[in-house]
Automatic annotation (TrEMBL):
GO molecular function, one term: ATP binding
Name of the protein in its database record: Lantibiotic protection ABC transporter ATP-binding protein
Pfam families xrefs: ABC_tran
Stretches assigned to the ABC transporter domain: 5-228
Keywords per UniProt: ATP-binding, Nucleotide-binding, Transport
């Protein structure tokens, strides 16, 4: 089994607060891994460590079987929290800024615009985009460096049902293009539709990690784990 990302007893602590506790994650190449958990469970902190935004307090991150290093960020794209867009620029101009900044070929702009279905936005400024279009532009920016791993933190937040459906169909295509996706969400039904594997995190710990089974009641499993953790106050 080839894992693109593996963590071993990963911890993140802020003073006395343990945000992530002994997390051992296994993410297969060219798959979609859904990280589920209630708000405040520690999902974003974990994804920020995987994308190099913050450092772990202890534990290891392996990328393609080797200890993660900052050079690996060349193969990792991430959209954490708000899409990092300039609202006074068009979609193409937003991407052009990044190609210049990171010395990437300009040809990549058309490729990623097509991937996220934003080729027809013309001179429309990004500030006038719908929330769904802004999310897709954020993903386009994350895809510019042709990543092997794409990390998305709550990508459907604030989207209407049409935007959620469009984003779901887009994400489902990525493994076929050789891109592994890790996405966090608290919307179980959406993750169930696209993920190959799921992990359930609650109170900073990873309590469950398995391939999605067709006969499993994910909502029931999720609620059982979250209630159990809440009652044990671990």
């Amino acid at each position: 089994m080839k894992y693109i990302i593996e963590t071993k007893n990963l911890n993140k602590k802020y003073k006395t607060q343990e945000v992530n506790k002994d997390i051992s994650l296994l993410v297969q190449e060219k798959s979609i891994y859904g990280l589920l958990g209630p708000n405040g469970a520690g999902k974003s902190t974990l994804l920020k460590m995987l994308s190099g935004m913050i450092n772990p307090t202890s534990g290891e991150i392996l990328y393609k079987g080797k200890i993660w290093s900052r050079n690996d960020l060349l193969e990792i794209g991430a959209l954490i929290e708000e899409p990092p867009i300039y609202e006074n620029l068009t979609a193409r101009e937003n991407l052009k800024v990044r190609t210049l900044l990171y010395d990437l070929p300009e040809s990549r702009i058309d490729e990623v615009l097509e991937m996220v279905q934003l080729t027809n936005t013309g001179k429309k400024k990004a500030g006038k985009f719908s929330m769904g279009m802004k999310q897709r532009l954020g993903i386009a920016i994350a895809l510019l460096n042709n990543p092997k791993l794409l990390i998305l933190d709550e990508p459907t937040n604030g989207l209407d049902p049409i935007g959620i459906g469009e984003l779901r169909e887009l994400i489902k295509l990525f493994p076929q293009k050789g891109i592994t996706v890790i996405l966090s969400s608290h919307i179980l039904s959406e993750v169930e539709k696209i993920a190959d594997h799921i992990g359930i995190i609650a109170n900073g710990k990873l309590w469950y990690q398995e391939e999605i089974q067709k006969d499993i009641d994910l909502e029931k499993l999720f609620l059982e784990i979250v209630r159990k953790v809440g009652n044990s106050n671990d």
